Amino acid sequence: MKIRATSGSAASLALIAIGWLLFRSLVAYATLEPAALNVLKQWITAEYRRYHLDRKDLSLEEKGAMLLQADKVEFLSVSARGSADSMVVRVEIKPSAVHPPRSPTVRYYRMKHSMILGWSLVSETSVVSYYTAPFL
To answer: Could you tell me the pLDDT band of residue 111, with boundaries at 50, 70 and 90?
Structure first.
């Protein structure tokens, strides 16, 4: 059995593949549930708290004030890509006084959902993972 591809069928196949990739990259946004957003806020708040607790240049009262302010993490934008139970989330954090100086304001996180445990944050990831999430 011989399979012969002509230039017309190869071009058609290439156009279909490119069209599918373009379609997936444009409509691959997933909606993020409020429970997943709470998990993200808790994670970032805990990171801010660890940073301020480890600082040696603050007094105990100043550390307490910073810890109270760390609860007020605000997001400027949140978007997610991937499937409903496994997605990569892009978060833009609003800069504030408690924001660690070398911490980026735009971050990417891999999140998973299970029926038993709900949402969990797997790890911080890269921008490449965010854009390739719909294809994996």
So the answer is: very high
Q: What's the order of all strands across the beta sheet hosting 86-93? A: 29-30, 75-82, 86-93, 106-114, 118-125
Sequence-ordered strand ranges (E) for 67-105: 75-82, 86-93
pLDDT tens figures, 35-70: 889 999 999 999 988 988 888 888 888 888 888 888
Specify the residue for token string 């058609």: 12
32 Cβ partners below 8 Å, 6+ apart? 78, 79, 80, 87, 89
Q: Where are the domains of the chain?
A: 28-135
How far apart, in whole angstroms, are the C-alpha atoms of residue 117 and residue 110? 16
Token pair recorded at residue 22: 């373009």
**Cα separation, 66 vs 45, whole angstroms:** 11
CB distance 89 to 40 below 8 Å:
yes
Q: Could you give the CA distance from residue 98 to residue 71 in angstroms, rounded to a whole number?
A: 10
